Amino acid sequence: PPRPPWGRPPQACPAPARDTRPRPTPDDLVGEWLTLPDVAEALGTDVGKVRRLVQERRVVGVKRGERTTFQVPARFLVPLHLVDPANAGRPDESGRVGVLSSLQGTIVVLTDAGFDDAEILEWLFTPHDELGEAPFDTLLSGHKARVRRVAQSEL
Question: What is the DSSP letter of 66?
Answer without folding.
Answer: T
